[in-house]
Design brief:
Elements: E1 10-11, E2 14-15, H1 25-38, E3 43-46, H2 56-67, E4 79-84, H3 88-92, H4 97-100, E5 106-110, H5 116-123, H6 127-147, E6 150-157, H7 163-173, E7 176-181
Parallel strand pairs: 3-4, 4-5, 5-6, 6-7
Antiparallel strand pairs: 1-2
Helix pairs in contact: 1-2
């Protein structure tokens, strides 16, 4: 799902409209603790309406609290995944992958195509990220492959991308290729 498309803030039966400011890291960790108390889960996913690394400080604080065991009874073995468009380093003005190392177990990067022009059409980045965006995402993928235990680039089946070229690019970057079905 992506807020860039007509969307009513509903996902799998949940209303995702916050109705207020973004939660602070402490609020998020309390929500995690509460969810864990209701039932175990194997994975904690950082995903956003756009790009979760736009709130990098909050992401690092929450992931760090989980990894350091500060949210007991959440198990130490809980896997942390980042779903990202790969623009986090460009958005933050520095290579953020070293900051994710040891906190994020899996990165799923929505690259969607091997073609830079098609990437612009599909991803519609903010103007300040358009010129360097595709190149920045590729650099983010390469860095993630070296620092994060599992790195995958993702594309949506049926969205018009050449999936053979996409798969070849994933292999060249050293990342897993994951094809998703559109909603």
């Amino acid at each position: 799902f992506c807020i860039k498309h007509a969307w009513k803030m509903k996902y799998r039966g949940n209303d995702l409209a916050l109705g207020r400011a973004e939660p602070e890291p402490g609020e998020v960790t309390e929500l995690i603790r509460g969810e864990w108390a209701r039932g175990a889960f194997k994975e904690l996913v950082f995903c956003g309406y756009g790009e979760p690394t736009m709130r990098l400080g909050a992401l690092l604080a929450v992931a760090g609290a989980v990894k350091r065991g500060l949210l007991a009874p959440v198990p130490a073995g809980l896997k942390i995944r980042l779903n990202t468009n790969g623009l986090g380093s460009l958005v933050n003005g520095r290579d953020i992958v070293p900051e994710l190392k040891g906190l994020v177990d899996s990165a799923h990067i929505s690259l969607n195509t091997a073609d830079p022009e098609q990437w612009l059409e599909m991803m519609r980045p903010a103007p300040e990220y358009a010129v360097e965006g595709f190149k920045s995402v590729l650099a983010f993928v390469r860095a993630s492959v070296d620092a994060i235990p599992e790195t995958a680039v993702t594309a949506i089946r049926g969205a018009g991308a050449d999936l053979e070229k996409f798969s070849a690019l994933a292999k060249e970057l050293g990342a897993n290729c994951r094809l998703r079905d559109g909603l």
